């Protein structure tokens, strides 16, 4: 039948229909779309078989640059390409002008979709999908033919349009997988080329099953591990040949070995790039990623960080960044000291590599142990120098912020240029919105005494107070509050701003803003400060008293009010004013309401301590309130700080009041001898469980009074114990 059709066919008619014209998305090239219609005509000229196919032609414009004459180039393109009609000349000029001025794509995507071509991919012939069987035949020949056959198939695979057809050719893919599995050690070029073919498939998620089917991922893991070991052997050989640099023969051998090593290293890094990139694509599936982790992928990647090839390093760091979001991988990076190797990369000028490295470090900085490694690697100084960088500064600040969370490392920032740079950035914001990372970082640093001194140098505190008070900025005031907690010269700088802060106490202000202002005032334990004048001038006593009532405000504000009362009560006259205003009963009521909150209890007890220190308020506390009874109950609180403040307060009370002293001593005795007292009380029970109501002399054994009033129990327990009826000698009471 085919023969008859061939005999009947007399003519082949081919018709080309021109289509649209556009620019290439990434290259400096024009893309011409056209349609080819082929028709076989019979003897009578009637069409027998027809086929239509859409095609495209890419016109690469290698000479196009900023100085190119667009008009001349457009005319030349139209003349040489018959697919473009002369009437399209204005459109061609417009497209060329766009290409000439098109900006290079940004770096948002750190890795290209396809790997760049490598040495060995070049061919002196064009690969044709119709000749795929011939290329497969080459895979059964010697190594050079295998490399050539694999390279031809690679050229086909680089075109995504061919992947579907290659997918159907199981013979070709099976042969490639077999050659890679059996002969990868014999030729680096061959291994690189075949892995590159499968990499083209791995770039699309729907083909991952194919790559997994041929176990290419496992092969890549084995190849990567082997190549890393080879690299170590090369390094050892080079070091051995460098032992005697004065010997000319040894020197020549070393130079020869070094040249050979550089060639081998270049090819090895190409192989590692394509193998690791394929693995990165497959790691989209978390189950596959877990298998890689079990085969020590993290250790391999960290080991590769010692290389110098920047493209390879971008790939490795990107892979580590993806892995770092899982706890197990993060722990592996900590064990292999990845941070130390990453710190070296911060000095590079490759923008992609630097950005990816910082992003990985940011992921790792959430871990306390890895933050310690960062500090040991000198990252505080290195990152501080990069804060002014417009592109990388934000990432550096986030990493430094995480480091500043740890109190152990806060003081280290004072010895870098970090704080002056942050203050500059802070004041450059003016009245505009401030980045939360910036102010949060400053708040952390202000919690350290040395940092606070650096921040307040010059007009630092003045500028902060000006912005905080003018804009009612809660976060700036939080930073100021942290600065105010440090004793010494820093705290004395706040005397000039006491009035401004006191003036912020009002119902119309936001509660969180008032909390910070009040907290700052409460920190100002300055002997020279006249608190009585401040209380009177700004009428603060009614405000403080009103906000002591449970439920009158948020707990945070009430707590700051209590702390503020403790601060002003250090002054004798202020303590008397507070006592007369009825604040002490309000504090006792608040203590009842907040007895489960250790912070509240501790601060209220501290206020009572300040009150009993002064003669004017001591009597009020002891005689007119139930404070001593509450303090006695709190003597043995589980919180150590509460016990400490409580005992100090009771010691002062005991010194001035005999009755309280006796109660305090009695309670302390009970506490310290609780086991002994329990034993004595149990001694009053007979073997039948009935209490002994009378002693040997007929006197009631248990008095109605306090058992501690029985001094005979303190000294004669052993004698009485020996007289107990039915008790064996030597038995424990």
Describe the structure.
It is a single chain. This protein is mainly alpha-helical and 733 residues long. It is 62% helix and 5% strand. It has 41 helices and 3 strands. A 3-stranded antiparallel β-sheet has the order 1-2-3. A hairpin with a 5-residue loop joins strand 2 and strand 3 (47-60). The radius of gyration is 42 Å and the shape is elongated. The protein starts with a helix and ends in an 11-residue tail after the last helix. The model is unreliable at 1-9, 105-114, 692-703 and 713-733 (pLDDT under 50).
Mean pLDDT: 84
Low-confidence regions: 1-9, 105-114, 692-703, 713-733
Task: Estimate what percentage of residues fall within beta strands.
Answer: 5-15%
State Rg.
42 Å
What characteristic shape results from the CA principal axes?
elongated
Regarding quaternary structure, what we see is single chain
Number of helices: 41
Cα end-to-end separation? 120 Å
Strand order of the largest sheet: 1-2-3
Organism: Oncorhynchus tshawytscha
GO molecular function: kinesin binding
Protein name: Kinesin-associated protein 3
Please specify the SSE layout and strand pairing.
Layout: H1 2-8, E1 11-23, E2 29-41, E3 47-60, H2 70-80, H3 89-101, H4 132-138, H5 143-157, H6 163-168, H7 170-183, H8 188-202, H9 208-213, H10 216-240, H11 248-282, H12 286-294, H13 297-304, H14 310-323, H15 327-335, H16 338-345, H17 351-364, H18 368-376, H19 379-385, H20 393-404, H21 418-428, H22 436-446, H23 449-456, H24 460-471, H25 474-484, H26 489-492, H27 498-502, H28 511-523, H29 531-537, H30 540-546, H31 555-568, H32 572-580, H33 583-593, H34 598-613, H35 615-624, H36 627-633, H37 640-656, H38 658-672, H39 674-683, H40 711-715, H41 717-722
Antiparallel strand pairs: 1-2, 2-3
Helix pairs in contact: 2-3, 4-5, 4-7, 5-8, 7-8, 8-11, 10-11, 10-13, 11-14, 13-14, 14-17, 17-20, 20-22, 21-22, 22-25, 24-25, 25-28, 28-31, 31-34, 32-35, 33-34, 34-35, 34-37, 37-38
InterPro entries: ARM-like, ARM-type_fold, Armadillo, KAP3
ARM repeats: 582-622
GO molecular function: kinesin binding
């Amino acid at each position: 039948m085919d023969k008859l059709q061939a005999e009947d066919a007399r003519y082949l008619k081919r018709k080309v229909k021109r289509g649209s014209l556009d620019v290439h998305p990434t290259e400096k090239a024009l893309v011409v779309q056209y349609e080819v219609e082929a028709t076989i005509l019979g003897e009578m000229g009637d069409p027998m078989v027809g086929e239509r196919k859409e095609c495209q032609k890419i016109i690469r414009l290698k000479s196009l640059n900023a100085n190119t004459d667009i008009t001349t180039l457009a005319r030349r393109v139209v003349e040489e390409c018959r697919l473009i009609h002369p009437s399209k000349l204005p459109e061609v000029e417009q497209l060329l002008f766009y290409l000439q001025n098109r900006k290079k794509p940004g770096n948002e995507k750190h890795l290209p979709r396809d790997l760049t071509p490598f040495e060995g991919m070049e061919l002196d012939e064009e690969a044709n999908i119709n000749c795929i069987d011939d290329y497969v035949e080459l895979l059964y020949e010697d190594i050079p033919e295998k490399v050539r056959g694999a390279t031809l198939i690679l050229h086909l695979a680089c075109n995504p349009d061919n992947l579907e057809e290659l997918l159907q050719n199981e013979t070709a893919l099976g042969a490639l997988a077999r050659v890679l599995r059996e002969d990868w050690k014999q030729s680096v070029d061959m291994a690189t080329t075949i892995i590159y073919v499968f990499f083209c498939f791995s770039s699309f998620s729907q083909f991952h099953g194919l790559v997994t089917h041929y176990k290419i991922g496992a092969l890549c893991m084995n190849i990567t591990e082997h190549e890393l070991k080879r690299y170590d052997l090369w390094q050892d050989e080079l070091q051995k040949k460098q032992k005697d640099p004065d010997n000319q023969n040894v020197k020549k051998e070393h130079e020869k070995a070094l040249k050979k090593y550089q060639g081998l290293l270049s090819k090895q890094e190409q192989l590692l790039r394509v193998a690791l990139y394929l693995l990165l694509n497959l790691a989209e599936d978390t189950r596959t990623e877990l298998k890689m982790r079990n085969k020590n992928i993290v250790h391999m990647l960290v080991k590769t960080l010692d290389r110098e090839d920047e493209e390879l390093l971008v790939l490795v760091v990107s892979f580590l960044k993806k892995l770092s979001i899982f706890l197990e991988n993060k722990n592996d990076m900590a064990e292999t000291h990845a941070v130390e190797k990453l710190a070296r990369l911060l000095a590079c000028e490759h923008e992609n590599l630097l950005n990816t490295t910082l992003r990985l470090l940011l992921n790792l900085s959430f871990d306390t142990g890895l933050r310690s490694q960062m500090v040991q690697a000198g990252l505080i100084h290195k990152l501080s120098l990069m804060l002014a960088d417009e592109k990388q500064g934000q990432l550096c600040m986030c990493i430094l912020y995480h480091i500043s969370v740890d109190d152990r490392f806060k003081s280290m920032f004072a010895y870098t240029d970090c704080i002056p740079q942050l203050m500059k950035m802070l004041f450059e914001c003016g009245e505009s919105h401030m980045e939360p990372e910036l102010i949060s970082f400053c708040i952390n640093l202000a919690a350290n005494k040395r940092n606070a001194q650096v921040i307040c140098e010059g007009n630092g505190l003045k500028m902060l107070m000006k912005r905080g008070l003018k804009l009612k900025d809660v976060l700036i005031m939080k930073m100021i509050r942290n600065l105010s907690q440090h004793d010494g010269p820093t705290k004395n700088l706040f005397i000039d701003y006491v009035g401004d802060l006191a003036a912020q106490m009002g119902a119309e202000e936001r509660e969180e803003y008032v909390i910070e202002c009040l907290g700052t005032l409460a920190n100002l334990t300055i002997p020279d400060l006249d608190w009585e004048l401040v209380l009177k001038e700004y009428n603060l006593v009614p405000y403080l008293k009103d906000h002591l009532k449970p439920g009158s405000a948020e707990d945070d504000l009430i707590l700051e009010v209590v702390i503020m009362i403790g601060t002003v009560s250090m002054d004798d006259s202020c303590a008397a004013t507070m006592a007369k205003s009825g604040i002490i009963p309000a504090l006792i009521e608040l203590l009842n309401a907040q007895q489960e909150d250790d912070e509240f209890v501790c601060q209220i007890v501290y206020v009572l301590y300040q009150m009993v220190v002064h003669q004017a308020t001591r009597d009020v506390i002891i005689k007119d309130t139930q404070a001593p009874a509450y303090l006695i109950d709190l003597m043995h609180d589980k919180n150590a700080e509460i016990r400490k403040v409580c005992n100090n307060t009771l010691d002062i009370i005991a010194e001035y009041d005999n009755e309280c002293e006796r109660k305090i001593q009695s309670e302390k005795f009970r506490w310290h001898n609780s086991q002994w007292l329990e034993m004595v009380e149990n001694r009053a029970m007979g073997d039948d469980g009935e209490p002994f109501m009378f002693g040997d002399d007929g006197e009631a054994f248990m008095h109605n009074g306090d058992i501690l009033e029985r001094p005979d129990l303190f000294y004669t327990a052993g004698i009485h114990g020996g007289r107990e009826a039915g008790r064996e000698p030597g038995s424990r009471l």
